[in-house]
Batch of 3 targets.
Target 1
Amino acid sequence: MRILVTGGAGFIGSHLIGELLKENHSVVCVDNFDPFYDVEIKKENLKLHSHHPHFTFIEADIRKREELSPVFRAHDFDACIHLAAKAGVRPSIQDPVGYYEVNVDGTLHLLEEACSHQLNHFIFGSSSSVYGERNQTPFSEEDALLSPISPYAATKIAGESLCHVYHKLYGIGMTLLRFFTVYGPRQRPEMAIHKFTREIFEGQELTLYGDGSSQRDYTYVTDIVQGILACLRGRGSFEIFNLGDSKSIALIKLIGLIEEGLGRKAKIKKMKNQPGDVPITCANISKARKFLDYKPHVPIEEGIQRFCKWFLENH
Ligand SMILES: NC(=O)c1ccc[n+]([C@@H]2O[C@H](COP(=O)([O-])OP(=O)(O)OC[C@H]3O[C@@H](n4cnc5c(N)ncnc54)[C@H](O)[C@@H]3O)[C@@H](O)[C@H]2O)c1
């Protein structure tokens, strides 16, 4: 297949492209090297694929339709896997307009291009944050999305709604994937696991927001990638899938696993909870199991060991 991956210079995208190329797909990656984190990391991510004959990189900004149109005109894509976004909950509170422009306007531009070029399948990288603040777990695809608590979550809900509209109006096959906190080698440096690992390793004080009881469903990146690949093989109707590990772990326990992985103790400073953070995430993955044969293979204990090993080898 000829596949467009947006945001492919980033963490999840760079893992995905590696696997797509292994499966003999042709991949065009669009990314604008957003400076949210060190651009050199993204350039290194791309170097992993740059030698591959079926890989093309195009520096383009999804906020600018005029930069996307030539990409769609030049390549007859079978599918688009849309991962480009401003990611992260807390920074979205400081920059809601910037998040809206990339995550909503940018998504709309891609959908317009998808429609003009009669794309068969559009896969949208959504987020567990769309479920917002709720006490009842696990979160299911059928739950109503009425309680987002960050601009980031609201932009992902808006992106999902637009995908639904373009499916209904133009028949584009749509798969919406709600990723539950993804981690693994090359994880974004500001994300909790990577940040805590760096701080513990460097002997810095680590800031823990809340009392450490908040829980997250962490998903190893290779499991997420397997879920995305399974969608490509799937049907072109409209489907939403949770991709998670379906187990939640308290933040304080997570820090303990990182301490074990590094063989060092954390110096912890506790601060009050941050706005935008939800108390718990946990995915019901029975739909993904049934239709995608999705099975997460890497439990958190093993994933953190692997992450720490990668960190120690690359820091
Ligand atoms: N990592 C997670 O835990 C997680 C969880 C849920 C959802 N997601 C979603 O998965 C996707 C990938 O996340 P990630 O962790 O790999 O993030 P990332 O920041 O590493 O990757 C996103 C990429 O998008 C690019 N980008 C940003 N703005 C752009 C623009 N205007 N035009 C073109 N490219 C642009 C960035 O340069 C970056 O390379 C995002 O849509 C994110 O919202 C991630």
Target 2
Amino acid sequence: MQELNTLIASLEQALLSLDRLKAQEVLQSALTGQVEPLIVATLEKIGEGWETGDVALSQIYMSGRICEDLLNTILEPNNEAIAEQPKMAIAELHDYHLLGKRIVYSIMRASGFDLLDYGQKEVDELVELVQKNEIKILLISTLMLPSALKVKEVRAKLELRGLDVKIVVGGAPFRFDEQLYKDVDADAMGKSASDAIKIVKTMIEEQK
Ligand code: B12
């Protein structure tokens, strides 16, 4: 087993030089439980490089895209789905930071959850889909504060339609301010894909 720090350094180097094959090799050499911390830590390091001006926007953009694509090949859906799941969906609300949502989706699917991926949606489209698909647990990812505040609008519009939906949120603004989820009327907040799994399992238990 390779040290996480060694893997982070190798993945960072591969991504910054846009070496997709090398990035794939590094991710495949990681244990399943290391994939999420590996990608998150590496992208955060690359993000810091962007903030200090050492990394170009194109490099950070391509790094995200490469990780997103590779996730599909690395984490396959688990065929033994968890029994009696309520209808669930995940969406990126308003902004375009899609990688965190992709990781949560892929890891949940690899853990036996069956959930819809709505991609990036605005408030009204999201509410419409939730009603149409009879969603009971809605996972929302946002990476920017203005998007995070829009969760409150989602809740209000769901209530106007009389829909009882559990909302779980995650992403940078919620990690920076751990009380924010309450201000936007979400039911829970998670900092990682493993948190998402724990929260959803508890909600399923409570709904029984
Ligand atoms: C990569 C990145 C980009 C990439 C996005 C590429 C892509 N395809 O996603 C690019 C370069 C395109 C980009 C653009 C911009 N970005 Co940007 N970006 C980042 C950066 C450095 C990393 C984000 C990331 O991918 N992290 C890795 C992923 C895996 O982690 P994650 O998303 O946090 O997800 C994990 C957890 O949060 C959690 N999670 C996530 N969602 C959910 C959901 C649920 C339900 C649960 C339980 C858990 C959960 O689990 C995930 C896996 O562990 C962050 C810095 C940061 N600290 O987040 C800034 C950041 C998010 N960006 C920021 C900004 C300002 C922008 C721009 C406006 C910049 C500009 N001036 O153009 C644009 C806006 C684009 C848009 N409209 O959406 C700010 C937002 C600040 C704010 N308070 O609003 C940040 C915080 C940087 C900063 N410190 O200023 N960005």
Target 3
Amino acid sequence: MKLLTCTGKRMIAEGTLELSFQKPAEFVFEAGQNINLKVPELLYEDARGPRRTFTVASAPEEPELYIATRLSDSGYKRTLLEIEPGAVFEYLGPQGSFLLEAFPHSAIFLAGGIGITPFRSMLAHAVAAGLRNTIYLLYGNARPETSAYHEWFLAQEKEADFFHYLPTMTDLPDDHPWPGERRWLSAGLALERVPEAGEAIFYLCGPPKMVEALDAQLHEKEVPAQRIRSESLWGY
Ligand SMILES: Cc1cc2nc3c(=O)[nH]c(=O)nc-3n(C[C@H](O)[C@H](O)[C@H](O)COP(=O)(O)OP(=O)(O)OC[C@H]3O[C@@H](n4cnc5c(N)ncnc54)[C@H](O)[C@@H]3O)c2cc1C
């Protein structure tokens, strides 16, 4: 049985919880992979049971493991919210093949909501490992307050000259002072905003319907399938 011990929890955006875990020596993974986590004990009834899959949001080079999730009223998520440091989870994995391709490809990350988790891991990995892929992140959210890791990405953009952050906020009142993009995340937006889009690899992550729509738009814009990678967060 493989076990992870929780070391902390914090809210990282409205309705969005991050849990951290001690990283066991045998836990070897690549940025973008996921784990299946079983809560120690379900405190509330849940028809889907005590397990869910989460992308590891931290990089292999970071000392701890993080996962981040949107809270809901499922028994599983209500249980997560009450977890205290010291709680021990069974896990399966790490697993998954949604990985950052090696330099020299430029990468365009398209993330909807909590689909940001693999990209936090990949960017932290690129910085720590000294990769120099040019990376663009287009990140769609309702508002800055609902955007997990928004401040972290802003800070990374100041430090790393190969990283360009393009958040878009799609549910702001007209008189809101947000100075940036407000249009929906789309293939058209990526092709308009990213100068290297003609050569880059596109990475899509978010709820299945969003990933499917972005994938179809990229095909419509004649981006070949060989330049598209995707991960659907099944269950949203
Ligand atoms: C590879 C991968 C990576 C993921 N990474 C993340 C991540 O980083 N962060 C994150 O928050 N989530 C991630 N997810 C999604 C996560 O596993 C959960 O599915 C999601 O968080 C919803 O869980 P919930 O308890 O809130 O909702 P649930 O109670 O699980 O319900 C969610 C939806 O599923 C439907 N549903 C309910 N029961 C079933 C059933 N038995 N079978 C099928 N559908 C059912 C419901 O109608 C509802 O619309 C990932 C999923 C995958 C596959």
